[in-house]
Amino acid sequence: MSCCPQKSESFSAFQPTLFEASANLSRPARVPIPGGTGLIGTSKAYIRADGEGPLRRGLVDAFWMSASTITNAEFAAFVKDTGYITEAEHLGSSFVFYAQLDPENASKPGVPGSPWWKPIDSASWQNLSGPDCSVIDDLTDHPVVHVSWNDAMAYCSWAGGRLPTELEWEHAARGGLGDVRFPWGDDEPDDENNLLCNIWQGQFPTTNTSADGFATTAPGLSFTPNAYGLHNTVGNVWEWTSDIFRTPAQRKQLSQSNADSPNLIKVLKGGSFLCHKSYCYRYRIAARLGNSLDSATTHTGFRVVWDKTD
C-alpha cells in the first residue's frame, strides 16, 4: 500500500447551500448551528465504560462550525502565516497505522496492546508516514492529521475560533434528529452496501476492502452532510474537543475528592477510518475516546467553532 491516502471518486459528494463564503483560509467554510436544548450522551449506551450514557440535556448558544475538519491546505495557511511547528515535529516522530507504511517500517515494534500503531521518525502533518510521504500537493483537501490537542488549540486561536465542547459537538452532529446513533439517523453502515461514512470494511486490522472508496482519509467535504451541512462528523478522523475526558468511575472519584488529575485527558469524538463494529464501535455520535494533550496520530484531526457574536 502507498504510504499516502489515495484519492477516489467513489463517494457521495454534496455541496451544502449553507456555506458562508470564505475570504481566506483563516476562516474555513462554515455552517450555522442553531442554539437551543442540546443532547449529550444516549439512552442506548453501547460502551458504558467510556461514559457515553446516560442521555443528558444542556443549553447551547447558536454558533458557527467548520463544515469539515480542518484540511491540509487550511493548516498550511496557518503554518505559513505563523511559522508554527507542531508537537510531532518538535518531538521528531508520531504514530502511524502499520498499513500506511513500507514493509520495513510496518514490521517495527508497535504500541503494547495496539501493535498496529508504529512510532515513526519524521512522521508529521506534512509527512504522513515519514519523510517520503508529503501531503502538500496531492492531499490538500484531506483532513490535517498528526495534530495534538495543543496544535489544534493554536490553530483555533489563529483562526479566531475555538474547539467545540462535547455538548456542542454532539448537538451539531445530530443535526436536529435527537437521540440517534449517527448523523443521518439509526441506519447502520455495513461492509458492502450501506457505505454512509469512511470507516473500515473487512476484518480489522488485517483486511480492509476499502469498499467506501478510501483505505485511509477521505476529503473533508466527502460523503453526504447532515441536516446542518456538516461532513464526516463520524468516521474519517477523530476530532478533538475542549472537554476533559472522564469515565463514570473518574466522575464518581472526582465528586468525592473535589480534586482533578494534573495529567489531563481530552475528549475525542466521531471515530475514524480505522473504526469497525467488531473492534471499535465508536463511529457513533455519543461514543467518545480520551487522549493526552500532546498525542498525535494519522487518524486524529479537529474542526473549529466560532461564537455567533463573532
Structure report:
The protein is of the alpha+beta class. 16% of the residues lie in helices and 17% in strands. The protein has 6 helices and 13 strands. The chain has helices spanning 72-82, 87-91, 103-106, 149-158, 166-174, 248-257; strands at 30-33, 36-40, 56-60, 63-66, 93-97, 117-121, 202-203, 207-208, 238-244, 265-269, 289-292, 300-301, 305-307. It has a 4-stranded mixed beta sheet, with no helix packed on it. The protein has a 3-stranded antiparallel beta sheet with strand order 1-4-13, with no helix packed on it. A two-stranded antiparallel ribbon has the order 2-3. The radius of gyration is 18 Å and the shape is globular. The model is unreliable at 6-23 (pLDDT under 50).
In spatial order, strands of the major sheet run: 11-10-9-12
SSE topology string: EEEEHHEHEHHEEEHEEEE
Q: How would you sum up the global shape?
A: globular
Tally of helical runs: 6
Work out the oligomeric state of the chains in this entry.
Answer: single chain
